[in-house]
Amino acid sequence: MEHELYLEKLKSSINILSDILDTENYGMCIVDRQGRIVVWNYERFFHLRASEVLGKPVTEVLENTRLHIVAKTGKKELFQLQKINGTNVIANRIPILYHGEIIGAAGTIIFKDTRELGELYSRIEKVENSFKAYRSEIAQMYRAKYTFNDIHTENDKMISLKEFCQVVAQSDASILIRGESGTGKELFAQAIHNGGASASYPFISIDCAAIPKKQLEAELFGYEGTLFNGGETKIGKLELADQGTVFLDELGSMSLDMQAKLLRVLETREFEKSGSNKKTVFKARVIAATNEDLEKAIEEKRFRRDLYYRINVIPVQIPPLRERMNDLPRLCRVLIPHSRYGYSRKNLNVADSTMKILFQHSWPGNVRELRNVLERAAIVCSSQEILPEHLPEYLQKYNSGPANADGKSAYRQEIENLERRLIQNALQNNHGNKMEAARQLGIQRSLLYKKISDLDIKTDYSK
Ligand SMILES: Nc1ncnc2c1ncn2[C@@H]1O[C@H](COP(=O)(O)OP(=O)(O)OP(=O)(O)O)[C@@H](O)[C@H]1O
């Protein structure tokens, strides 16, 4: 009898619960050990009042029921499809135990009709599909356009660097690309992204120097709508890069505060948006670039050593253009714009005299500077050849007359010939004695040695 009392207690608790629970999509029926109904709040689903069914065997009231079975076996049955009055419902059946003894079973229906569940599924499916569509749209919007084929070079060092980067593109390790401004750091970063498994995912570039320090955090992490920001939500670049690459350009100019936050993300692979305490998983690869001397910045306490080690897993150093001048002719070929005002000029090329000038410049702005020079020249030139006069003013200083095959100006060549003749004469007059020759020329002996070597002068005049 004790267990009947227990069932009674359960019944009154459930009645209280039904007042506070959402009973619109939720109902409960309890049977005793014999399968007789003791609690019934399925009223709204089956249009049968409790007074009509209480005490009746559940098998007489509910079609396809198994509650009486669960009240015997004690084995719960969850999320079962049950057809009642031509309607599918999802039913849970749970045995009720009292001091370890089965005294009945409780049945719950969560959804009135599986059509509702179907509708919910199709709504979820629609949301998922539009989510997929947005994701591929984001990947399209943030596409990396360059591949390794766009890195043009004939320089051995650059060819090996390209091959090395093709290998590291296959891993997801962090990369730190270093090089002067305009050497092609972003070009390499994009090629690495496109050469690896993340190619179809977004490539998100963030210029840490261009974004005001205070804004950088919101750009990277995003924020959730709160009362304080008028409910506005922003997806951060770290989240947007989902499975792709985050390219942190000018990393050296990131504030110490942001460096600490970035380090935490790289270590835990998760982050918190401002205004939210939920963690967002960080799933992208990081490629950073800088033209700053980071080691010096570490010494000067402007850059965190731990972040440096975390990012500099694979260091990539791009040489400046002046150290790979044999790339000039090829770069000129690919960087000359072959159209002007919409007219195609496929055969536009650089005249030899112009090339000689380009060889004399030290290109502090590297490939970007060269591209700008060629773009400007292509605009001002109406012939098929870019001539010295099409070059900007600051390059005209190298244009001191027609140049020789080795790229020296005629003026420079004349000076060298004169120097060579004077030194040869002095050496001859002094039977190859360099000290005497230097005295005769009125120059330091060290300068004479340098000139002899630079001008490749024969020094054996003793005989
Ligand atoms: N080897 C190359 N072949 C073809 N184009 C190149 C090469 N290197 C650089 N470029 C071109 O030069 C320009 C500058 O390159 P990029 O922007 O990648 O340089 P960067 O080192 O990232 O510059 P910054 O330090 O200013 O950010 C781009 O237009 C790029 O396509």
Automatic annotation (TrEMBL):
The keyword Lipid metabolism does not apply. SUPFAM superfamilies: Homeodomain-like (SSF46689), P-loop containing nucleoside triphosphate hydrolases (SSF52540), PYP-like sensor domain (PAS domain) (SSF55785). InterPro entries: AAA+_ATPase, AAA_lid_NorR, Homeodomain-like_sf, HTH_Fis, P-loop_NTPase, PAS, PAS-like_dom_sf, PAS_fold. Keywords: ATP-binding, Nucleotide-binding, Transcription, Transcription regulation. It comes from the Bacteria. Residues 151-379 form the Sigma-54 factor interaction domain. This is Sigma 54-interacting transcriptional regulator. It comes from Brotonthovivens ammoniilytica.
